[in-house]
Q: What sequence folds into this?
């Protein structure tokens, strides 16, 4: 029977409705009374509001829990997806870091804790955030989002462990019959996950403001692309007296039910990260030859024994093999653009080795694949080149051997990125006609970093 790990997380974001602070305090106290670790992803302005309101009582109670980051201003326009739509990957990462660093620093300063996870505001996801989060030491992306999905299992993408589109995502609805239905859903997920081959995760999410309000604060002030001026902010509609307490109590009963399962435990995002068991040691030369032999004109992630390797990690170890370097898989971000390779005559293996020995573009603390490599006088895109590297290794070609460049190869991992660019209806604060073709394109290019997580 597999273990089932429960993550209970709260997007802590309403910095307008005063009553949301009492709901946050009640949730934290509920968890503390049960010795349950919660995950509180906090908006920068929410942390600053708690500080301005001298809510040291809440801040002190949060010390027992894991802190995550949830953007600086959440729904203020332009949101993350809106402003990053006009940027490439590297310059978008720089823009995101510029706009969001202060929020992260304020959450850290006010809570006294480093953020261990991140989740986007609403549906406002963007691939350019990943290298920045990684450079900030945030190892886990925890939320609900379906732009990138891998069979509803945890996965690596952009250098982060992603817990975003899993079979076990659920919530107990805050309504009169919510408890019975919520317990039934939890039991079903628990039974299914217990029968799987590796540890499973149930991800349960709320917003503390939900317990105090019947609607969301951003729906009142930032709906459909509108920015309400600060001096005209309106609070969210409140629940009737006594209803918040009733639903807090119902959450407690739901948690008590989940704890009756013998092999289920509550964990934080960092604990999930530490449980991931992909082998990170150097591979053997024989391993590289075996992996290369299995690649033709399609490039995808690979599970090899206890290694999980993304397409960019395969590229890195193939290059290292041919250059006589340690065979350590290296994260390399996908290129800025998808290009076609030049038609090429056969080239020497030595020309290929010269092409891959050059310096790659830098991206914060990591590297990025170029749009193309120059092999002899030909421009060859990274997919074609990587599949060609595999062929060279599998066939044991020497430096003076002339080989055909494998053109027309396919990055198979792109199939795990959705292609629907019409995001307006996905989240009420978005402008209704919002389209994000650039984010879609960038998300596909970054599937170079996609691979399953192993537990």
A:
């Amino acid at each position: 029977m597999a273990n089932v790990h429960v993550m209970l997380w709260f997007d802590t974001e309403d910095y307008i409705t005063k009553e949301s602070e009492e709901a946050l305090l009640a949730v934290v106290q509920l968890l503390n009374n049960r010795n349950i670790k919660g995950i509180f992803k906090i908006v920068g302005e929410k942390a600053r509001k708690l500080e301005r309101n001298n809510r040291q009582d809440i801040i002190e109670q949060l010390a027992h829990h894991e802190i995550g980051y949830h953007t600086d201003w959440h729904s203020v326009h332009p949101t993350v997806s809106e402003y990053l739509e006009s940027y490439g990957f590297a310059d978008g990462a720089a823009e995101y870091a510029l706009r969001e660093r202060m929020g992260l620093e304020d959450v850290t300063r006010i809570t006294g804790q480093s953020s261990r996870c991140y989740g986007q505001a609403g549906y406002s996801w963007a691939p350019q955030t990943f290298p920045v989060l990684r450079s900030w030491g945030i190892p886990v992306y925890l939320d609900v989002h379906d732009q990138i999905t891998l069979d509803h299992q945890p996965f690596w993408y952009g250098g982060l462990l992603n817990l975003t589109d899993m079979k076990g995502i659920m919530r107990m609805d805050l309504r009169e019959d919510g408890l019975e239905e919520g317990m039934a859903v939890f039991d079903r997920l628990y039974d299914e996950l217990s029968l799987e081959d590796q540890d499973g995760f149930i991800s349960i999410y709320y917003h503390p403001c939900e317990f105090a309000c019947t609607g969301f604060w951003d729906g009142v002030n930032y709906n459909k692309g509108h920015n309400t001026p600060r001096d005209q902010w309106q609070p969210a509609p409140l629940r009737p007296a006594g209803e918040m307490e009733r639903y807090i109590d119902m959450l407690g009963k739901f948690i008590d039910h989940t704890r009756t399962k013998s092999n289920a435990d509550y964990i934080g995002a960092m604990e999930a990260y530490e449980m991931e068991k992909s082998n990170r040691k150097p591979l053997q030369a024989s391993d590289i030859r075996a992996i290369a032999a299995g690649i033709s004109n399609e490039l995808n992630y690979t599970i090899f024994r206890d290694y999980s390797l993304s397409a960019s990690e395969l590229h890195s170890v193939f290059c290292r093999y041919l250059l006589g370097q340690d065979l350590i898989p290296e994260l390399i971000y996908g290129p800025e653009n998808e290009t076609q390779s030049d038609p090429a005559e056969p080239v020497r293996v030595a020309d290929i080795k010269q092409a891959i020995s050059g310096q790659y573009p830098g991206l914060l603390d990591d590297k990025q694949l170029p749009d193309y490599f120059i092999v002899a006088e030909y421009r060859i895109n990274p997919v074609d080149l990587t599949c060609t590297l595999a062929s060279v290794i599998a066939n044991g070609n020497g430096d003076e051997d002339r080989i055909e460049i494998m053109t027309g190869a396919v990055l198979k991992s792109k199939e795990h990125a959705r292609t629907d660019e019409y995001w307006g209806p996905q989240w009420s604060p978005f402008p209704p006609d919002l389209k994000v073709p650039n984010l879609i394109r960038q998300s596909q290019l970054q599937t170079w970093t996609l691979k399953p997580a192993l537990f």
Observations:
- The radius of gyration is 24 Å.
- The chain has two domains: 4-276, 285-416.
